[in-house]
Design a protein that fits this description.
Blueprint (H helix, E strand, L loop, with lengths): L2 H6 L3 E2 L2 E2 L20 H36 L5 H4 L4 H20 L9 H24 L5
Antiparallel strand pairs: 1-2
Amino acid sequence: MTVSCLLDGRVRGGGQDVGTPRSQPERLFNTATRGHSMSTESISDRREHIRSISVTALSALLGVGAALASASVTGHLEPAEAATQTTPLLLVFGAILVQFVLFDFTSIYGEDEFGIKHYLFITFMTFSFWFVVWGILLTAEYTA
């Protein structure tokens, strides 16, 4: 089977038509089953996209901010000693909690449920950015 037979929907053999047109393939994302018309679907998809970008960006920024704050708090210490301090952990947990309160207060999720999946995503993203950036700053022996 060649690409051309996939494009025009006919089975070809040896360069000639040997079959009838195939039935239309099932769409991966069938818009008719969602219950939305095209105009509201594009608006809700755009809203979900903007929401996901803003949640990810805020998690990343607060993770980096917590890492910079951690580096400034532990900048006078040796990297091995700074890694054993609990203050940087308190800073990253504070950044995570600020996001939970902020998303609840601004109701960025609107009527959608803010479930365990969202809490885990925010926690993972913030902690990951904090961990990587603070690790780089410790390795580079950054002093604030």
